[in-house]
């Protein structure tokens, strides 16, 4: 069995340095693989400009700031598009000031052409209605005829083989209960492709039934309905933004997930009551950052090494604190994470976004360690050479410490390139916050509250430049 499933981390994460021009420009990545980013985190290295975070699920122009609690805002002159190998910028000085030195960290989520299967059933709910099963096919979502969010370019299979659906041919049209829509649609009965009329007429007698749609660019708003009975279905939003409806939680979520790299972007609308949210990773997340979008609210983070009773804030230097209204004192599962009644994570009718991560051997690591207050500081094994590293003291107040090997390619790092996720401060130059980046982890080299004070506990978040052992059995080299 291969040590890791990811031979080239640059297919999933890259750091890009660029120089602003004060106008418009397109930035092209320079990793071994092309990377179409789904989440971009930008910081002007030389100015006290706020961190700017945008993603493909909310839309490239919608911006959040890691160092503030402000609501999402639409800035059409910041990140203007996500491209096949990079991104484009407008003239906003925060991301493109003339002659400015800027860093952009980029992660790939579900991408431009996701695939998703939905299993459909029929229930009696003031008349027959369509409902959807969860990804494990172990439960039916509690609401009927819900509105679906599908992504342009995505391919969606509606499995309508359940016996409850046999007398209710499931079809898609441009209006509720009429006007069949055929662009990108394939009908199958017992594995054989059929015409629309063959599909509807032979529906009841078939054992296996599927409607498959690849959502076209600029597709209209669609509707799913029964070709025989009216009032059973609901609306389908066909979106230029990314992400697809997820039925795993008690609240509907929209998810764009990269299960290979263990990263998903999750959007949902809060209820103010205890709930669960589907994250789409197919594995238990180790880390997630949650931010309210429609109003001011703190960035609240869950970390598996802190446990389900604690949280930290990305926009503040606070130590970890306990509060059951954030995670319900409940650990996430391979399908959902739990949220309580706190407005930061679950405001009634409030819109929220979560960035979720699960460790992938040889590519990402989210851990903790104790500082020793010595220049011969602790070594932390990651199983790869980190290209990006963030550290936060969880036991005491301290800033979020961020370094990467693109800005400082040679050891020690942290001498000329410290940025702080919770501060708009420009890049910090220091001689007493050094870390050595090694082929299999990192080692603290100084006594500092950022990453190595005695008697303090630290959390860390690392992504690879190269695995220690790649799938091709090549061993990484220290430097």
Q: Give the C-level CATH assignment of the largest domain.
A: Mainly Beta
Q: Total helix count?
A: 4
> How would you sum up the global shape?
elongated
Question: Helical amount among residues, as a percent range?
Answer: under 10%
- Beta content comes to 35-45%
Q: Give the distance, in angstroms, between the N- and C-terminal Cα atoms.
A: 27 Å
Instruction: Label the structural class.
Output: mainly beta
What integer value in Å does the Rg equal? 24 Å
CATH superfamily of the largest domain: Cupredoxins -  blue copper proteins
Task: Kindly report the average pLDDT value.
Answer: 95
Q: Please summarize the sheet with the most strands.
A: 8 strands, antiparallel
The CATH level-2 architecture of the largest domain is identified as Sandwich
Q: Quick one: how many beta strands?
A: 38
The count of domains is 4
- The poorly predicted ranges are none
Strands of the largest sheet, in order across it?
21-22-23-30-25-26-27-28
What is the CATH topology descriptor of the largest domain? Immunoglobulin-like
Question: Can you tell me about this structure?
Answer:
The structure is a single chain. This protein has 479 residues and is mostly beta strands. The protein has 4 domains: 9-107, no CATH class; 115-241, Sandwich (Immunoglobulin-like); 246-357, no CATH class; 364-467, no CATH class. Helix content is 4%, strand content 41%. The protein is built from 4 helices and 38 strands. Strands 21-22-23-30-25-26-27-28 form an 8-stranded antiparallel sheet. Strands 1-9-3-4-5-6 form a 6-stranded antiparallel sheet. Strands 11-10-13-18-16-17 form a 6-stranded mixed sheet. The model has no long low-confidence stretch (mean pLDDT 95).
């Amino acid at each position: 069995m291969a040590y890791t499933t990811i031979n080239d981390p640059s297919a999933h994460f890259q750091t890009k340095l660029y120089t602003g021009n004060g106008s418009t420009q397109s930035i092209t990545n320079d990793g071994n693989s092309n990377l179409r980013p789904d989440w971009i985190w930008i910081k002007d290295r030389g100015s006290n400009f706020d961190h700017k975070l945008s993603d493909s699920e909310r839309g490239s122009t919608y911006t959040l700031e890691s160092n503030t609690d402000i609501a999402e805002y639409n800035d059409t002159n910041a990140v203007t598009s996500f491209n096949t190998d990079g991104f484009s910028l407008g003239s906003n000085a925060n991301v493109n000031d003339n002659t400015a030195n800027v860093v952009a960290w980029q992660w790939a989520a579900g991408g431009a052409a996701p695939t998703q299967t939905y299993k459909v059933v029929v229930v009696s709910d003031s008349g027959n209605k369509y409902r959807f099963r969860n990804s494990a096919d172990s439960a039916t979502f509690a609401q009927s005829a819900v509105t679906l969010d599908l992504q342009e370019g995505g391919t969606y299979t509606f499995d309508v083989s359940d016996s409850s659906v046999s007398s209710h041919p499931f079809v898609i049209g441009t209006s509720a209960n009429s006007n069949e829509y055929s662009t990108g649609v394939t009908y199958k009965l017992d594995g054989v492709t059929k015409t629309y009329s063959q599909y509807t007429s032979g529906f009841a007698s078939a054992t296996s039934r599927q409607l498959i749609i690849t959502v076209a660019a600029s597709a209209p708003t669609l509707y799913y309905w029964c070709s025989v009975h009216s009032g059973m279905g609901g609306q389908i939003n066909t979106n230029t933004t990314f992400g697809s409806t997820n039925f795993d939680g008690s609240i509907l979520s929209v998810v764009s997930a990269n299960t290979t790299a263990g990263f998903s972007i999750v959007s949902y609308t809060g209820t103010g009551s205890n709930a669960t949210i589907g994250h789409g990773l197919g594995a238990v997340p180790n880390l997630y950052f949650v931010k309210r979008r429609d109003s001011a609210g703190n960035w609240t983070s869950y970390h598996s090494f802190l446990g389900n009773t604690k949280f930290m804030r990305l926009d503040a230097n606070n130590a970890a604190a306990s509060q059951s209204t954030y995670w319900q004192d409940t650990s996430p599962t391979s399908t959902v994470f739990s949220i309580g009644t706190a407005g930061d994570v679950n405001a009634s009718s409030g819109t929220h976004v979560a960035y979720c991560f699960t460790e992938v051997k040889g590519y990402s690591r989210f851990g903790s360690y104790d500082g020793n207050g010595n220049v011969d500081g602790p070594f932390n094994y990651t199983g790869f050479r980190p290209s990006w590293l963030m550290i936060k003291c969880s036991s005491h107040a301290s800033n979020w410490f961020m370094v990467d090997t693109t800005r400082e390619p040679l050891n020690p790092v942290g001498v000329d390139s410290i940025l702080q996720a919770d501060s708009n401060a420009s890049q910090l130059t220091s001689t007493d916050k050094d870390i050595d980046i090694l082929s299999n982890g990192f080692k603290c080299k100084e006594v500092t509250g950022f990453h190595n004070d005695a008697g303090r506990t630290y959390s860390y978040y690392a992504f690879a430049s190269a695995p220690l052992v790649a799938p091709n059995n090549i061993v990484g080299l220290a430097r």
